[in-house]
UniProtKB/TrEMBL annotation:
Gene3D superfamilies: Bicelle-embedded integrin alpha(iib) transmembrane segment. It comes from the Eukaryota. The chain crosses the membrane at residues 241-263. This is Non-specific serine/threonine protein kinase. InterPro entries: DUF1191. Residues 1-25 form the signal peptide. Residues 214-236 are annotated as: Disordered. Keywords: Membrane, Signal, Transmembrane, Transmembrane helix. One of its GO terms (cellular component) is membrane.
């Protein structure tokens, strides 16, 4: 029985721990790959009668308003030989893709006020929103869940010329930040004209290190919205609360289990005691019946005590 209780308690602890691990993994950039998948789908919907080499702006679902996306279909040979300028991205000659695709689609993302939500960067503030560029095969324009193609700049880097960059606060240095699709984050210097360089696909932004507990890491290009930073904070706050709640819930469950175990043990002990008492009662009854008269002589023995006492009396 005790073993059962203990393994049950162990199981509960394990379940809560795995839930916690899941939550904390999610609170990094765990949602970003799912966003890429969704935005690929919505970007491809802009292709109704698409012309090669023409960028099309696409609609995002209303629950993601504030994000801008576009799609551009190209022959890969043309991209390699001539390069292309597409929104903030300048592709030099020599950019190829793997695996090979005859035509590819470049999906552009501007995460706007959602930058902090999908790419939280503790200790930094965004001066420009996160821009994403992902390449996909263009063979099926109604495809969803497409794997991205690896693009590589083989001659010069791809340049990202950020627009509407917020002024760098005094005493800080702006940095380019690159979010690799594998989740790694790299920083580099900002080039002239607010330009960052990249050798492959990914997500890019300009950031500064936050000064002390700065409460205003504003993201988007639209100035009359003071909320985005707060939104991100609130979100991470609610996550903290979820984690705290999980811990407390787990503890409460454990307490309940411990109580049950103790109660079970107490119950068994009482049962045991009752049984022993019952056995004792039976024994006493037997004792009474068989040697009922021995009680009187034993009482007399105590009464003879005074004879010992008399030894001390002179
Ligand atoms: C937004 O809405 C789309 C379509 O309605 C849905 O597929 C997606 O999961 C939603 N995304 C978020 C982050 O709520
Ligand atoms: C971003 O701004 C849009 C309005 O432009 C709003 O609907 C959306 O909720 C905002 N997103 C965040 C994360 O604040
Ligand atoms: C990021 O930095 C790591 C280690 O410093 C390096 O191996 C990796 O190639 C870099 N990634 C990019 C995209 O520069």
């Amino acid at each position: 029985m005790g073993l059962l209780y203990r393994s049950l308690a162990m199981l509960v602890v394990l379940i809560w721990l795995s839930r916690l691990a899941h939550l904390s993994a999610q609170s990094s950039s765990g949602q970003a790959p799912a966003l890429d998948v969704l935005l690929q789908d919505y970007a491809y919907r802009a292709f109704v009668h698409p012309k090669t080499g023409v960028p099309y702006d696409a609609q995002v679902p209303s629950n993601l308003s504030g994000i801008q996306i576009a799609a551009l279909r190209l022959r890969s040979g043309s991209l390699y030989r001539r390069g292309v300028v597409y929104k903030e991205f300048e592709f030099p000659v020599g950019v190829n893709e793997s695996p090979y695709a005859e035509r590819l689609v470049l999906v552009y993302q501007n995460l706007g006020n959602w930058s902090l939500v999908y790419y939280p960067l503790p200790g930094y503030s965004y001066l420009a929103p996160v821009l994403g560029l992902l390449a996909y095969d263009a063979i099926d324009l109604s495809a969803k869940n497409l794997p991205y193609l690896d693009i590589a700049a083989t001659v010069d880097p791809i340049k990202i010329k950020f627009q509407d960059v917020k002024p760098t606060p005094d005493g800080t240095v702006a940095k380019c930040v690159t979010f690799d699709l594998d989740g790694s984050v790299n920083f580099s210097n900002v080039g002239s004209g607010n330009a960052c360089s990249a050798f492959k696909q990914g997500h890019f932004a300009i950031v500064v290190e936050s000064i002390a507990p700065s409460p205003s890491p504003v993201t988007s290009g639209s100035p009359p919205t003071p909320t985005p930073g707060g939104r991100g904070k609130k979100k991470s706050n609610s996550k903290t609360w979820i984690i705290v709640g999980s811990v407390l819930g787990g503890l409460a469950l454990l307490a309940l289990l411990a109580f049950l175990v103790l109660w079970g043990r107490k119950y068994r002990e009482r049962k045991h005691l009752e049984e022993m008492e019952k056995a004792a009662d039976v024994g006493e009854a037997l004792h009474m019946t068989t040697v009922g008269d021995t009680k009187a002589p034993s009482a007399m023995v105590t009464r003879t005590q005074p004879t010992i006492e008399s030894e001390y009396v002179p």
